[in-house]
UniProtKB/TrEMBL annotation:
Keywords: Cytoplasm, Glycosyltransferase, Magnesium, Metal-binding, Nucleotide-binding, Purine salvage, Transferase. Its EC number is 2.4.2.8. It is an enzyme of class 2 (transferase). Its cofactor is Mg(2+). This is Hypoxanthine phosphoribosyltransferase. It comes from the Bacteria. PANTHER family: HYPOXANTHINE PHOSPHORIBOSYLTRANSFERASE, HYPOXANTHINE-GUANINE PHOSPHORIBOSYLTRANSFERASE. One of its GO terms (cellular component) is cytosol. Residues 17-164 form the Phosphoribosyltransferase domain. It holds the Pfam family Pribosyltran. It catalyses: IMP + diphosphate = hypoxanthine + 5-phospho-alpha-D-ribose 1-diphosphate; GMP + diphosphate = guanine + 5-phospho-alpha-D-ribose 1-diphosphate.
């Protein structure tokens, strides 16, 4: 779905699909260099990271495996609950693997903080994070994130995998919603 199909639900576009692709290309180059000769496993967090994973992994100039986990953090609102539960676990044993978590967005950091702790207890060779978006002003815990696409203001964004009440994930761009959508 293009921004032009959003009617008056969209307030403004933050990043176009071209800007997102361009940034992912750069991140992919960096990741490929950093993990040269290492047993890399990309771990995506459903559902928001689906499009980041799909586009990021295709920038890599060689084959790389992926795995997924699903957790619950948000309900249908726009605030992090801080309550994390595994809905679907990884299929792979990550012991001694170089794990790179692929995420859509770091807001409070509570979700990733929990995921990091959970995965670290399984004994990976290394554990790093790649997130497309990060909201520095919203941080409640400090997250050491090695690869960041864009730092953004503390606003609720949708598109490119990110939803509001399961809607707008298929918007190609990333943008903010008009106030009337929330009320
Ligand atoms: P955190 O625990 O860092 O506050 O948030 C984790 C999850 O909340 C993200 O992976 C994402 O699913 C959701 N989230 C946080 N901020 C936003 C936002 O601005 N827009 C959308 N659509 N989801 C968000
Ligand atoms: Mg996410
Ligand atoms: Mg969501």
């Amino acid at each position: 779905m293009d921004s032009s199909h959003m009617g008056n639900d969209l307030d403004h576009v933050l990043f176009t699909q071209d800007q997102i692709q361009e940034r992912l290309e750069r991140l992919g180059e960096q990741i490929w260099q950093d993990y040269e000769g290492k047993d890399l496993l990309l771990v995506g967090v459903l559902k928001g990271a689906v499009l980041v994973m799909a586009d990021l992994m295709r920038t890599l100039p060689g084959t790389v495996p992926m795995d997924w986990m699903a957790i619950s953090s948000y309900g249908s609102g726009t605030k992090s609950s801080g309550v994390v539960r595994i809905l679907m676990d990884l299929r792979e044993d990550i012991t001694d693997k170089h794990v790179l978590i692929v995420e859509d967005i770091i807001d409070s950091g509570l979700t990733l903080n929990w995921i990091q702790g959970n995965l670290r207890s399984r004994g990976p060779a290394s554990l790093e994070i790649c997130t497309l978006l990060r909201k520095p002003e919203a941080a409640k815990v400090a997250i050491d994130c090695k690869y960041v696409g864009f730092d953004i203001p503390n606003e609720f964004v949708v598109g490119y995998g990110l939803d509001y009440d399961e809607k707008y994930r298929n918007l190609r761009d990333i943008g903010t919603l008009a106030p009337h959508v929330y009320s």
